[in-house]
Design brief:
By secondary structure, the chain is an alpha/beta fold. It has 11 helices and 16 strands. It folds into 2 domains: 124 residues, Alpha-Beta Complex (Aspartate Aminotransferase, domain 1); 226 residues, Type I PLP-dependent aspartate aminotransferase-like (Major domain) (Aspartate Aminotransferase, domain 2, 3-Layer(aba) Sandwich), CATH 3.40.640. 37% of the residues lie in helices and 14% in strands. It binds pyridoxal-5'-phosphate.
Length: 364
């Protein structure tokens, strides 16, 4: 191949802001000598993100996994069953298990890969405490249907919204639905602070509890509850603030890449159907092949040319080997076996998108 690309391409590449912009915030840290424990940069970032996302009770924490665990902790959920989706990153299920609860997997919608709301009620037992759905790839769950069921059975709704940064549903942030929405600001995500995450909490009192839990459960010498260390540092906030001003440009670039892929590939792969009331955040570019065989053929050809997509998400979480009882989720298992996310990041250029698309078509 003469048109081969120069560098290896992975599914994602962290966005890096101009060095001087990051250093300007680091200079401030050196001036104040304040490194962590809710310093000025953490507060500034929390305020800016809450305003940008138009949400209240925004708690910045160390990562998106602990954010899920904090949500369970803040509601006092220490055992019982949590209804969740098998089609997600492993952290959704592992956070439930780590909190000594049992994940109960409900199968997904074949159209947009979110939890199938019509199957939730059948999974509810007297042990059910909460529903933890995922706005997977930034697509909206049936938030109204889920809330209706939660109200009927008095269950908490904790959205793993790690992919939903900036998605809007029915004119407001997708993060404003449910009792808590959690975010991840990991380096590979749409908006990042190297490592980081957040809880967006509907109830002010629960938000206060969460704020306490993340700093050891005490204020001064007064100890209120069991806590842990989930605070974020000023250096992480500095990266977040440096990235923050580039969000419009990050979104615009991703949108452009997605439109190019669409144009090149629409006849060759199946794409999820976004809800009509959703303003999408361009977080991922999932494509569905006809079979696992077809996917493997495409992978083989792409890898040969230095392109490494990831099998997002594979395997279906209901098949994890360390689960006590395996559950059957045929739709999720089927989709997991033949889906991938194509490279999508700001540095990806037009030629590379054409090249990746061409090699996919060739393999098919
Ligand atoms: C990334 C991710 C997480 C975990 O976030 P971290 O910040 O890496 O801990 C949780 N759930 C989903 C769906 C994710 O993609």
């Amino acid at each position: 191949m003469t048109t081969d690309i120069k560098e290896k391409i992975f599914v994602t590449k962290p966005y890096l802001p101009p060095k001087e912009e990051y250093y300007a915030y680091v200079d401030k840290i050196y001036e104040t000598g304040h490194l962590t424990n809710e310093g000025p940069l953490v507060k500034e970032l929390e305020k800016k993100l809450a305003d940008y996302l138009e949400v209240e009770n925004f708690q910045y924490v160390t990562n998106g996994t602990i954010a899920l665990q904090f949500a369970l902790k803040a509601f006092g959920i220490e055992d019982g069953e949590i209804i969740t989706t098998p089609f997600s990153y492993v952290a959704t299920a592992s956070s439930i298990l780590w909190e000594r609860c049992t994940p109960v997997f409900v199968d997904i919608e074949p159209d947009n890969f979110t939890i199938d709301v019509t199957k939730i009620e059948a999974a509810i037992t007297e042990k059910t405490k909460a529903i933890m759905p995922v706005h997977v790839f930034g697509y909206a769950c049936d938030v109204e249907g889920i809330q209706k069921i939660a109200d009927k059975y008095n269950l908490k709704v904790i959205y793993d919204a790690a992919h939903a940064f900036g998605s809007q549903y029915k004119g407001k942030s997708l993060l404003s639905y449910g009792d808590v929405s959690t975010l991840s600001f990991h380096a590979t995500k749409l908006f990042h602070t190297i490592e980081g995450g957040a809880c967006i909490v509907k109830d002010k009192e629960v938000a206060n509890k969460l704020a306490l839990i993340k700093k050891f459960g005490h204020i001064g010498d007064e100890h209120y509850c069991l806590g842990i260390n989930g605070k974020q540092s000023e250096f992480h906030a500095a990266m977040g603030l440096a990235n923050f001003v580039h969000i419009p440009e990050i979104l615009a670039k991703r949108k452009e890449i997605i439109e190019l892929y669409d144009e090149q590939l629409n006849k060759y792969v199946v794409r999820p159907h976004a809800q009509k009331d959703l303003i999408y955040n361009y977080a991922y570019y999932p494509v569905l092949f006809k079979s696992e065989n077809e996917l493997l053929k495409v992978f083989e050809n792409l890898n040969k040319h230095g392109i490494y997509p990831r099998r997002y998400f594979y395997p279906s979480l209901n098949t994890l080997s360390y689960l006590k009882n395996q559950q059957f989720c045929p739709i999720s298992e089927n989709i997991s076996s033949r889906i991938t996310c194509l490279p999508l990041f700001v540095d990806l250029n037009v030629e590379e998108v054409y090249f990746i698309s061409k090699e996919i078509k060739e393999a098919l």
